[in-house]
Design brief:
The structure is a homodimer of 148-residue chains. By secondary structure, chain A is mainly beta. Chain A has one helix spanning 3-10; strands at residues 15-19, 22-25, 44-49, 65-71, 81-82, 93-94, 107-118, 121-125, 134-140. In chain A, 5% of the residues lie in helices and 34% in strands.
């Protein structure tokens, strides 16, 4: 048996490429001015999708709550511990026990309400991501098992 | 003004690299046998992290609910509409209105309960991801604003 084959089988794939399917258009332009979470004053914003994925937006409608997954492009990916919410008085905490944007894979998770659907654009309420943030995915908020 | 400079400013970055920070070790080995959602019978599983990120797990403890973000490595990224839950009788629906693993950026989102923390490993309950699924991130489930 060729030993090279065994090595190749044992090594799992470690890196993957995500691509922006849309971008946030928001009056929030500075990370320092953004609220920590969407329910702490996230403004209304547009999410503008690539024409190529518009078909995937079918069946989203005003009034629905959805989860937006974003790429937090200003994040520091080397960070493993933080002072929660940037407050130096709070003890240093592992990033996986916090919602810090600084983390190895800076994927943002935002629960927002759809206000309007306009072709490849969604108007949403309660989004704390800054203008220009790339969007990776949209998922419905799951109702209880009986309603699935 | 050099017109090339203007072009470079206008083109936003579209692709990003994520990397596995850990892997799922689960008795579920086939996608066909996996439950659709963790609360529909997801078994207990281990999440085994890379030694390099173990410091980020500090402050996670048994009893906590966390969100695991995974890379659904068997997904078809060209799919934009699906029959929900694979049931052909249900009308074709845009993927962003479903939790289908097949979608342009196949990032899985799993709400699980931490049963135990053992160095770089978390024992969790209610995870429907199959054995070998790469893990990208862990986030706490957010309590109400007053408890943050």
């Amino acid at each position: 048996m060729n030993p090279q084959v065994r090595v190749e089988v044992a090594v799992a794939e470690q890196e993957f490429r995500v691509r922006a399917i849309g971008w946030v258009e928001s009056p929030l332009v500075e990370r320092a001015g953004a609220p920590r979470q969407g329910d702490e004053g996230g403004p209304e914003a547009w999410v503008v999708f690539e024409a190529g994925v518009e078909r995937g937006l079918r069946d989203l409608a005003a009034g629905q709550e959805v989860l937006l997954l974003t790429w937090l492009h200003r994040a520091d990916r080397e960070v493993l511990t933080v002072h929660p919410r940037g407050e130096r008085s709070r003890p240093e905490t592992g990033v996986f026990a916090t919602r810090s944007p600084d983390r190895p894979n800076p994927i943002g998770l935002h629960r927002v309400t759809v206000l309007a659907v306009d072709g490849p654009r969604l108007r949403v309420e309660g989004l704390e991501a800054i203008d220009g943030t790339p969007v990776l995915d949209v998922k419905p908020v799951l109702p209880g098992p009986s309603e699935r």
